[in-house]
Design brief:
The chain is mainly beta and 179 residues long. The chain has a domain at 40-157: q2cbj1_9rhob like domain (Jelly Rolls, Sandwich), CATH 2.60.120. It contains three helices and ten strands, in the order ααββββαββββββ. A hairpin with a 2-residue loop joins β5 and β6. The longest helix is centred in the N-terminal third of the chain and has 7 residues, at 3-9.
Protein backbone atom coordinates (compact mmCIF):
# COMPACT_ATOMS: atom_id res chain seq x y z
CA UNK A 1 0.00 0.00 0.00
CA UNK A 2 2.81 2.48 0.85
CA UNK A 3 5.58 0.75 -1.09
CA UNK A 4 5.97 3.04 -4.10
CA UNK A 5 5.89 6.13 -1.90
CA UNK A 6 8.48 4.67 0.48
CA UNK A 7 10.85 4.11 -2.47
CA UNK A 8 10.08 7.60 -3.84
CA UNK A 9 10.71 9.43 -0.55
CA UNK A 10 13.50 7.27 0.90
CA UNK A 11 15.57 5.84 -2.00
CA UNK A 12 18.72 5.88 0.16
CA UNK A 13 17.09 3.23 2.40
CA UNK A 14 15.03 1.41 -0.19
CA UNK A 15 16.41 1.98 -3.72
CA UNK A 16 13.73 -0.19 -5.32
CA UNK A 17 10.40 -1.81 -4.56
CA UNK A 18 12.16 -5.18 -4.74
CA UNK A 19 14.59 -4.18 -1.99
CA UNK A 20 11.71 -2.92 0.13
CA UNK A 21 9.91 -6.24 -0.29
CA UNK A 22 13.07 -8.07 0.83
CA UNK A 23 13.32 -5.97 4.02
CA UNK A 24 12.95 -8.07 7.14
CA UNK A 25 10.52 -6.82 9.74
CA UNK A 26 10.62 -7.50 13.44
CA UNK A 27 8.82 -6.48 16.61
CA UNK A 28 9.91 -3.26 18.30
CA UNK A 29 11.44 -3.80 21.76
CA UNK A 30 11.93 -7.51 21.01
CA UNK A 31 13.95 -7.59 17.79
CA UNK A 32 16.88 -5.27 17.08
CA UNK A 33 18.62 -3.39 14.32
CA UNK A 34 20.58 -4.42 12.22
CA UNK A 35 19.05 -7.91 12.39
CA UNK A 36 15.78 -6.45 11.12
CA UNK A 37 15.20 -3.56 8.73
CA UNK A 38 11.83 -2.35 10.03
CA UNK A 39 10.57 -2.77 13.59
CA UNK A 40 6.79 -2.86 14.00
CA UNK A 41 4.61 -2.05 16.97
CA UNK A 42 0.90 -1.90 17.76
CA UNK A 43 0.09 -0.10 21.00
CA UNK A 44 -3.30 0.20 22.63
CA UNK A 45 -3.38 3.86 23.58
CA UNK A 46 -5.71 6.43 24.99
CA UNK A 47 -6.12 10.00 26.02
CA UNK A 48 -7.60 10.56 29.44
CA UNK A 49 -10.98 12.22 30.06
CA UNK A 50 -10.81 16.02 29.85
CA UNK A 51 -12.17 18.58 32.31
CA UNK A 52 -12.07 21.49 29.88
CA UNK A 53 -11.86 21.70 26.09
CA UNK A 54 -8.32 20.86 25.02
CA UNK A 55 -6.22 19.17 22.33
CA UNK A 56 -3.63 16.54 23.20
CA UNK A 57 -1.60 17.04 20.00
CA UNK A 58 -1.62 20.20 17.90
CA UNK A 59 -0.15 20.05 14.39
CA UNK A 60 3.05 17.98 14.35
CA UNK A 61 4.98 15.25 12.57
CA UNK A 62 6.07 11.99 14.13
CA UNK A 63 9.67 11.38 15.13
CA UNK A 64 12.09 11.07 12.23
CA UNK A 65 12.85 7.38 12.74
CA UNK A 66 9.26 6.31 12.04
CA UNK A 67 8.82 5.15 8.46
CA UNK A 68 5.04 4.97 8.78
CA UNK A 69 2.39 5.47 11.40
CA UNK A 70 -1.23 4.53 11.78
CA UNK A 71 -4.22 5.06 14.01
CA UNK A 72 -7.13 2.67 14.42
CA UNK A 73 -9.90 4.30 16.43
CA UNK A 74 -11.55 2.31 19.23
CA UNK A 75 -14.26 4.81 20.17
CA UNK A 76 -16.78 3.54 22.71
CA UNK A 77 -20.32 3.13 21.35
CA UNK A 78 -21.86 5.44 23.95
CA UNK A 79 -19.22 8.21 23.74
CA UNK A 80 -21.08 11.41 22.72
CA UNK A 81 -18.01 13.67 22.97
CA UNK A 82 -17.38 16.17 20.17
CA UNK A 83 -13.82 16.63 18.90
CA UNK A 84 -10.69 14.53 19.19
CA UNK A 85 -10.68 14.19 15.40
CA UNK A 86 -7.50 13.78 13.35
CA UNK A 87 -6.49 16.72 11.17
CA UNK A 88 -4.31 16.21 8.10
CA UNK A 89 -2.54 19.42 7.15
CA UNK A 90 -0.05 20.85 4.69
CA UNK A 91 2.31 23.75 4.70
CA UNK A 92 0.80 26.93 3.30
CA UNK A 93 1.80 27.52 -0.31
CA UNK A 94 4.19 30.33 0.67
CA UNK A 95 6.24 27.83 2.73
CA UNK A 96 7.47 25.52 0.00
CA UNK A 97 11.23 25.18 0.31
CA UNK A 98 12.69 22.50 2.59
CA UNK A 99 14.81 25.00 4.55
CA UNK A 100 11.76 27.19 5.08
CA UNK A 101 9.77 24.19 6.29
CA UNK A 102 12.49 23.18 8.76
CA UNK A 103 12.41 26.68 10.25
CA UNK A 104 8.67 26.29 10.99
CA UNK A 105 9.20 23.51 13.53
CA UNK A 106 9.59 23.76 17.28
CA UNK A 107 10.59 20.20 18.05
CA UNK A 108 8.03 18.12 16.16
CA UNK A 109 5.33 20.82 16.38
CA UNK A 110 4.43 23.38 13.72
CA UNK A 111 2.67 26.64 14.46
CA UNK A 112 -0.77 26.92 12.88
CA UNK A 113 0.20 30.08 10.98
CA UNK A 114 2.43 27.95 8.72
CA UNK A 115 -0.16 25.26 7.95
CA UNK A 116 -3.66 24.69 6.64
CA UNK A 117 -5.97 21.75 7.33
CA UNK A 118 -6.68 19.69 4.21
CA UNK A 119 -8.87 16.98 5.73
CA UNK A 120 -10.41 16.08 9.07
CA UNK A 121 -10.90 12.40 9.91
CA UNK A 122 -13.64 11.94 12.49
CA UNK A 123 -12.82 10.05 15.67
CA UNK A 124 -15.16 7.16 14.86
CA UNK A 125 -15.05 3.50 15.84
CA UNK A 126 -13.25 1.19 13.37
CA UNK A 127 -11.64 4.04 11.42
CA UNK A 128 -8.10 3.33 10.19
CA UNK A 129 -5.62 5.97 9.02
CA UNK A 130 -2.20 4.80 7.81
CA UNK A 131 0.41 7.16 6.41
CA UNK A 132 4.03 7.45 5.36
CA UNK A 133 6.06 9.76 7.58
CA UNK A 134 7.76 12.59 5.73
CA UNK A 135 8.52 16.18 6.54
CA UNK A 136 5.11 16.94 5.00
CA UNK A 137 3.08 14.42 7.05
CA UNK A 138 1.53 17.11 9.22
CA UNK A 139 -1.28 15.97 11.48
CA UNK A 140 -2.91 16.85 14.77
CA UNK A 141 -5.93 16.33 16.99
CA UNK A 142 -8.85 18.75 17.20
CA UNK A 143 -9.97 20.21 20.51
CA UNK A 144 -12.05 17.72 22.47
CA UNK A 145 -14.89 18.99 24.62
CA UNK A 146 -15.11 18.16 28.32
CA UNK A 147 -15.80 14.47 28.72
CA UNK A 148 -15.61 11.59 31.15
CA UNK A 149 -14.69 9.28 28.24
CA UNK A 150 -11.20 8.27 27.19
CA UNK A 151 -10.18 8.70 23.54
CA UNK A 152 -9.07 5.17 22.66
CA UNK A 153 -7.03 4.02 19.68
CA UNK A 154 -4.47 1.54 18.43
CA UNK A 155 -1.18 3.25 17.50
CA UNK A 156 0.66 1.49 14.66
CA UNK A 157 4.35 2.15 14.03
CA UNK A 158 7.03 1.06 11.56
CA UNK A 159 10.45 2.21 12.74
CA UNK A 160 13.78 2.21 10.87
CA UNK A 161 17.39 2.59 11.97
CA UNK A 162 17.79 5.97 10.27
CA UNK A 163 16.89 9.60 10.70
CA UNK A 164 14.46 10.24 7.84
CA UNK A 165 14.18 13.97 8.48
CA UNK A 166 16.05 16.27 10.86
CA UNK A 167 13.13 17.36 13.04
CA UNK A 168 12.39 16.50 16.64
CA UNK A 169 14.56 15.71 19.59
CA UNK A 170 15.22 12.00 20.00
CA UNK A 171 18.29 9.81 20.22
CA UNK A 172 19.71 8.71 16.90
CA UNK A 173 18.95 4.99 16.51
CA UNK A 174 22.01 2.80 16.96
CA UNK A 175 22.69 -0.69 15.78
CA UNK A 176 22.38 -3.00 18.76
CA UNK A 177 22.61 -6.69 19.29
CA UNK A 178 20.44 -8.87 21.44
CA UNK A 179 21.99 -9.89 24.74
Amino acid sequence: MLGDNIVKHYPELFPSREQLLKAESGIRNIDRFPDKTILLDAQISGNTPVRRPTSVRPTHIDLGNKLFSGLFYLRQDDDPTQGGDLTLSRFRSDTVQRAEKLACFEGVYVKDRYTEVVKTVRYAKNTLVLFLNTLDSLHGVTVRESSSYCRLFLNLVGEVNAVLYPVGNFPTPKATTQA
